[in-house]
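Bench log. Compound arrived from synthesis this morning; before running ITC I wanted a structural hypothesis for how cytidine-5'-triphosphate sits in the protein. Inputs:
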Amino acid sequence: MNRPSASWAGRHVLVSAGPTYEDIDPVRFIGNRSSGKMGFAIAAAAARRGATVTLVAGPVHLPTPEGVRRIDVRSAAQMHAAVLAQLPATIYFGAAAVADFTPATVTADKLKKRAGQDTMTLELVRTEDILADVARHHARPTRVVGFAAETGELDGYARDKLQRKHVDLICANRVGVAGSGFEADDNTLVVHGHGIERTLGPASKAAVADALLDLVEQEFADVP
Ligand code: CTP
């Protein structure tokens, strides 16, 4: 935390944050409870260290951190396009809670219920995986950091994502409990990397963000 303010000068830090909204019709969407606070805290911390920071934000109610360039998007498809368009970057933090599925079709008119209709079925299709696409991009950032939100077993799923998505770190959040994860002001991250396992927090998301940047600094001496 006591580092000189310009120690990340010359680095382009790309951060995604917040939820995505997947439209069903002109009035309805599928969303999730991500507040964006963790990703915004990482963007703010990187800017304080002198990095050039681009923040691709889903629909959130948060002010833009000082010194951060922000691009607002709504859907997973828009976030995918916006993030890839911002490469090259030195480090990508994929903190957004991107929808894994989106409606197969978006109707132009509001869906109407029929008399006597008791159920409805919505067909969903997989979204493109932004984190995996950044990690295998020809302009891959030197380090790619993903997040995992789990309500149950944390570590096994996180380690699985580390391998499957070819990323350098996965930060596992516990969601669904007080004082951690979505909407909370505090957080605990269990960070898994190749030969790395560290718990950051519990602490404010700002302090956890700083601790995460410290960890990147300590573990990855090769980051330009
Ligand atoms: N992610 C992404 N694009 C998607 C889906 C997820 O970039 N279409 C990223 C998120 O930003 C996060 C990580 O992948 O960094 C989360 O991985 P994911 O497998 O979606 O985790 P969960 O949502 O926890 O999924 P599951 O419970 O299905 O394992």
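What the model suggests: The longest strand covers residues 196-204. The mean pLDDT is 92.
ITC booked for Thursday regardless.
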